[in-house]
From TrEMBL:
GO terms for molecular function: hydrolase activity. Belongs to the HAD-like hydrolase superfamily. Its cofactor is Mg(2+). It comes from the Archaea. This is HAD family hydrolase. SUPFAM superfamilies: HAD-like (SSF56784). The keyword Glycoprotein does not apply. One of its GO terms (biological process) is small molecule metabolic process. The keyword Magnesium applies. PANTHER family: N-ACYLNEURAMINATE-9-PHOSPHATASE (PTHR46470). Keywords: Hydrolase, Magnesium. Its EC number is 3.1.3.-.
Length: 222
């Protein structure tokens, strides 16, 4: 196929936090003086349910943590206190590029779009911390500029900004449920970055690589 445009996810595709969500959550419980009552995996699983209704990531986290705490038998104010401590502890600029990310962005000579689920102020800090500000021709903050992935709208907005068609575009991401499914819904070809070679993804991506080095080699060969 001819690739005329490339869309990419941000979190755990191009960059990762220096400190994991679990590490920051543990510090937030300690800072708030609250015994741990939910896990980082609970937060990740629930995140998307709040993304379309919150104006900021702090607002999202306060609503999410309030419900998670309530589900664990605590008052919602407990969850909001943990969310505030999480915000005070998390430094969004403390991220690092994943292996192959800079090489991939440097060698691609087609229009690039970032399509990321996340609040604009949070994601811009990550881009700045990773030194990727200005690396993209178009940036779509799904959940804010458009519905969250896997809705096709953020992909459509990205392609409109790039003046590209889905038939000749690919999307690269680590999430089967949001990146692969969303790309398919919008008519793009999907490239999945997987951490588990034995996993059977559903839906099945068009291409799968263990890291971004493989993506770069494939795109350079197209």
């Amino acid at each position: 196929m001819t690739v005329d445009a490339v869309c990419l996810d941000l979190d755990d595709t191009l960059v990762t936090y220096e400190r994991s969500v679990g590490e920051v959550l543990a510090l937030a419980f300690e800072r708030a003086g609250v015994d741990p009552c939910f896990a980082a995996s609970d937060y990740r699983a629930a995140y998307g349910d709040y993304a379309d209704d919150a104006d900021t990531v702090n607002e999202l986290r306060r609503a999410c943590f309030a419900d998670l705490a309530a589900d664990a038998g605590h008052g919602p104010e407990t969850g909001r206190a943990v969310a505030d401590a999480f915000a005070e502890t998390r430094d969004q600029t403390r991220v690092e590029c994943l292996p192959g990310a800079r090489d991939l962005l440097d060698v691609l000579d087609v229009p690039l779009a970032l399509v990321t689920n996340g609040a604009p102020e949070m994601q811009r800090q990550k881009l700045r911390g990773a030194g990727l500000t200005g690396a993209f021709d178009v940036v779509v903050f799904a959940g804010y500029d458009a519905p969250s992935k896997p809705d096709p709208e953020p992909f459509r907005r990205a392609l409109a900004g790039l003046d590209a068609t889905p038939e000749n575009a690919v999307h690269v991401g680590d999430s089967v449920s949001s990146d692969v499914a969303g790309a398919h819904a919008a008519g793009l070809r999907s490239v999945w970055i997987h951490g588990d070679a034995d996993r059977t993804p559903d839906p099945e991506p068009h291409r799968a690589f263990s890291d971004l080095h493989g993506v770069r080699a494939w795109l350079q060969s197209t």
